[in-house]
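Fig. S4 source data, part A: sequence.
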Amino acid sequence: MAKRVTSYSRLSKDKKENIKSFLSDNCPPMGIYETLYAFKDSFGSFMGEEGTHPWSQGFPLTTQLEKFNGPSMPGSVEINPEDRLYPKAWGHSELRGSIADYYNSQYGSTIAPENVMVFAGGRPGIYSVLAFLKEHVEVRIGNIEWPAYLDILHQTKANKQIIPYTKENNFHPDNSEYFNRAGLDQKTSIMPIISNPQNPSGQTRSGDELKELIEMAEQPNCGILLDEAYEMFHSPSVSGIQYVKDLDNSNVFLSGACTKGLQSPGIRIGWIVASKKNIETLSNYSSFGMGGVSHLSQKYAVKLLEPNRVKQARKAIEEHYSWQRERYGKAFKEMELGVYTGKGGFYHWLELPEGMTNTELNNRLFKRGAAILCASDCDMGRPHSKDPDYVSPYSRFFRFSFGPLLPETFESDIQLFREVYEEYKRDMAV
């Protein structure tokens, strides 16, 4: 008897069975992407394309800051046969050395290349630290923070507690609130996650306040993940490494990158500075989970970190973005918006009057080719998968980015925003 053969194509046509995905359906895009998709649906093109106003975008100018004597951007890197081999799991020795030298020369630290781990951007480094936290570590994170933290904390199943960010504390809670041990048992350790300068508010911990924060983090059963992506966007630049007394006997993690201050988000180079023991764990992960970072990107980063160049870049970044922060801030105050911006970063943290919402403002801006980031996307208290029943306490707040804006667009940016805002106010008054 001939063996019966079932036709797969016929079975597929007859049964039409739905195949369920093997992957999680609880992995929504980061909040900012929902804004980008909504903008595309409304305006017809993607944010950042010609004719749009990228006020929702979190990246800096990637061109030379000529007005403030910024250095030119490196144009190329040389490729050799060794660059076709697998990169080291922990990063190029030359780049790790350049990063260590940068911190030591700028902040008086004494870290070694072995205290540095290179990642494909700051985000993978932050994700990796949280992915390998032990069960007894409790993460402390502010109500308002960089949107990706919410997604990372959810996917890594980290145990977290929210620290209130309110108008009453000027979106800048005391250091002690992050390390409050009330209700904790002796086995539980505390690790705050803080972006500094902060995204989205620009609030910055510096001087004695930053010193105190690091001192608290170096105590037993304590640590910190300090995200310093906006390190250079403050006058003067700030880094917690300046106050670390014993990095190798701590759970202090500092995250840095070429993304913001070095104006090169596209090369995807970031790093974690930590104890040698913790760096070893991260590099072990890289050996099987990441496979190192592109040789060419790392070589480009070495050029960006050349000492004379980086000195010039720091000065230009500080001056350019302080100037932009001041004049945009003045214009928003003249519109009588609530301005709660700190002195760092390249965002303005703004509040609409009673009765208005950031979503409605965005809907109106979309029609004019512009968009802001609604504060609800920065709300660490919201459900990971957006629940339509959840009402964010930040419905009137939003983040305005002047990071990628050219100096010459200031007048047209403010004019466009004012027109949409005044129209919204008139409609509310009817």
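Fig. S4 source data, part B ends here. The two ends are 85 Å apart (CA to CA).
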